[in-house]
Amino acid sequence: MIHDPNRFDTMPIGIVLRRAPGVTRWAAWIWKAVDVLPGAGPADWRVLREENDVTDFHATTASLELHGADTEAYLHGLNAQTPALYAVMRETDDDARPLDLVLLTASPYEAQDYADNGEDIIEKITMPPAVHAWVSDFVDTHHREEVFKKRKRDKKDIGAVEDGIGDARIAQMADVYRSPVQAKKERLQ
Known about the structure:
The chain is of the alpha+beta class.
């Protein structure tokens, strides 16, 4: 497959994660993706804000990639009541970096694929207006509606009865292609 550079675009996006005290004794902290920073530079868990026990971190900067083949998914996401980006994260054993960003996407279909495995954490983050405009422009430029083509059925009669093929319920001593009707006649004679 030849990669068409005109049907691919990227934007660096910073991910802001919030750490808040847990509400049960089993969870010391609750982590939530709360915002994105379009065009952000590199970051490694930089503290953005601390208030009481709540801390916001610029955890990392990811590359949001748009592909021309996924425009239908982007269009679906843009038409949602609240357009969103999806951060796919995995827990780590490192206390300083408890979550690792696996993917940032504008495709709700791709986010659903990751949600199906049950191991990843999927966070839905409201799409900022600048990112919304960028994704919308990409979709306007590259989206092509696929024409629905109805499949034509063949003319074969699938309800036709083939007498003489044999029946697995009949013990076959000789001809495996003996029909049930013929076997019944033989038993009656």
